Amino acid sequence: IMNDGSPVIDGDGFEWTDGRKAWLHPDQRYELNIPFTEVNGISDIHEITVSLADNIPSDRLTLKWNSTNKQCTSETSHIIIASCRINDRNGLTPDPFDQDLALVLEIIPQWTMPDLGEMRREPSVTIQDRAGNEDIATFPQNRWRFSAEMAAVVLSRRLAESAIGCGGVGGGSS
User: Fold this and answer.
1) What span, in angstroms and rounded, lies between the C-alpha atoms of 125 and 61?
2) In this predicted model, what pLDDT tens digit does every residue of 11-25 receive, in sequence order?
3) With b meaning 16 or more CB within 10 Å and e meaning fewer, what string describes 74-91?
4) Taken in order 79, 124, 31, 158, is the CA torsion positive or negative?
5) Residue 40 bridge partners (DSSP)
6) Gap between the terminal Cα atoms of the chain
7) Does the pTM exceed 0.85?
8) Rounded to whole angstroms, how far apart are CA atoms 68 and 104?
């Protein structure tokens, strides 16, 4: 085992799989990667905390990975965790002493999440090792907003297109 040091969250350590998200919508799946380094590997990590809205004290939308059960939990009713795992940088299950790691979360925002209008939610990540060393990073460049309206518009359009394709609106014969 190497000398104990703090885990280090990458400078761009909050990455949506398919690019930055200015908006999140209900019942949509979003995958998030949080790359970090721990000199003693995954076996030295105690807990990873991801707050999707660290700047909103009433509900920081906190998600946690715990080393005891190697699972994630959501501390908010507004986010469901569809999957959660820690990978090495090649996307594989890490060996106990792999140093370059990533927490991969797949989340689903719920219809109950408040729409805060123009207020943008700012994510943060805290990684703590077993000795209590930690790194904390905020990601103002990844601020985002939530809207149920836009998802409803997309759903309405899909329903209308389905009706047209099934002989519904405008699809009847004379």
Assistant:
1) 12
2) 888 999 988 999 999
3) bebebbebeebbbbbeee
4) positive
5) none
6) 79
7) no
8) 18
